[in-house]
Amino acid sequence: MARTVFCEYLKKEADGLDFQLYPGELGKRIFDSISKQAWGEWIKKQTMLVNEKKLNMMNPEHRKLLETEMVNFLFEGKEIVIDGYKPVE
User: Fold this and answer.
1) Cα(39)–Cα(23) distance, rounded to whole angstroms?
2) pLDDT for the residue numbered 40
3) Which DSSP category does 52 fall into?
4) From which domain of life does this come (predicted)?
């Protein structure tokens, strides 16, 4: 049985994640209030960010940048802006 959460990203009830995918307090907040759909959207953005900015996940500064972008995207409603990237219309 799927669990339902009020998704802060979608601003509506939606299927929640099956388990906590991110560590710590932030991970708990994501698990409690971000849907599978919203997480999927973030993963696409995260992949673009890692590729475009050539981020190294072994670098703590790069991980911190990604975490900040994730919070902005999922909870603050801020679109991810990648220099030079134009979404296909």
Assistant:
1) 15
2) 97
3) H
4) Bacteria
Please name every residue paired with 14 in a beta bridge, in sequence order, or none if there are none: 5
Q: From CA 41, how far away is CA 80, in angstroms rounded?
A: 11
DSSP letter at 16? B
Give the Cα-Cα-Cα angle 22, 27, 29 (nearest 5 degrees). Answer: 155
What span, in angstroms and rounded, lies between the C-alpha atoms of 3 and 82? 33
- Predicted TM-score (pTM) of the model is 0.87
pLDDT digits (tens, 9 = 90+) for 42-64: 999 999 999 999 999 999 999 99
Residue 4 amino acid letter: T
The tokens describing 82, both together, are: 């990648």
